Amino acid sequence: MPELPEVETTLRGIEPLVINKVVDQVLIHKASLRWPIPLEMATLLPGQKFCFVSRRSKYLLFALEQGTMIVHLGMTGHLRVDSSLSARRKHDHFEIVFTDGTALRYNDSRRFGSILWTSDDPLQHIRLANLGPEPFSSEFNVTYLYNRSRQRKVAVKPFLMDAHVVVGVGNIYASEALFRARISPIRPAGKVSKAAYGRLVETVIIILNDAIAAGGTTIRDFANSEGQPGYFKQELRVYGRAGQKCTACDTLIKQVRLGQRSTYYCPCCQK
């Protein structure tokens, strides 16, 4: 599933290809994604100009003159811009055709993504309003994370992955950040020291920045807006390495299930 680095990579690839373009028509080939695509977009968007693109958590926000298109890539969704005359691909469910003859197309084989529309403040949309801070924001700091963790019995890894605590730290990146911060993922969040949370804040930011620089992590089928895979997989130190030697101490990496997600860690380095 595309996580924050993959979504940020998509944003940076797509934004220069759509900014200041004017919508000619909207084609909804299959409206039944995770939530139905609003059919009124076909009449609301033509004539409007794309102003800018931003990201909130794993949502892409396409700001037009009279509202915002909110896109979530789900598990297999991706966006691309090509000629409106080029043949549609299998699983192309939605496209915006611009007056210059190009088209923004959404492809999603499993259809777990979503395309929504709001004419109000997008950050107050029901899908965004209750999310935690961005990991690159000043709000995400050791004091905040430590205070949020007090009295929490849940393991620190699912705590870190909770989008109400902080957004965008998915399964892969949580495993990697906890390894580099030397924190066991199974330790209760409320039992992690403030000093350890200080290390964790730093490693989360480093891991996500490194992943963005590498274009994301391709585990199954993520590709960026140009169809290229991400390369952060080459930097993984614990994720997917069960039974292999730890890169720091040669102890075998263990795999457990936490919150129904595979979790990888070094029992020697992480306490």
Description:
The protein has 271 residues and is of the alpha+beta class. It folds into two domains: 121 residues, MutM-like, N-terminal (N-terminal domain of MutM-like DNA repair proteins), CATH 3.20.190.10; 124 residues, Helicase, Ruva Protein, domain 3 (Orthogonal Bundle). The protein contains six helices and ten strands, in the order H-E-H-E-E-E-E-E-E-E-H-H-H-H-E-E. A hairpin with a 2-residue loop joins strand 3 and strand 4. Helix 3 crosses helix 6 and helix 5 crosses helix 6. It starts with a helix and ends in a 6-residue tail after the last strand. About 5% of the residues have low confidence.
Concise synopsis of the structure shown:
The protein has helices at 4-18, 41-44, 142-149, 156-161, 171-181, 194-213; strands spanning 23-28, 50-56, 59-64, 67-72, 77-83, 92-98, 102-108, 114-118, 254-258, 261-265.
Q: What's the SSE blueprint?
A:
Blueprint: H1 4-18, E1 23-28, H2 41-44, E2 50-56, E3 59-64, E4 67-72, E5 77-83, E6 92-98, E7 102-108, E8 114-118, H3 142-149, H4 156-161, H5 171-181, H6 194-213, E9 254-258, E10 261-265
Antiparallel strand pairs: 1-6, 2-3, 3-4, 4-8, 5-7, 6-7, 9-10
Helix pairs in contact: 1-6, 3-6, 5-6
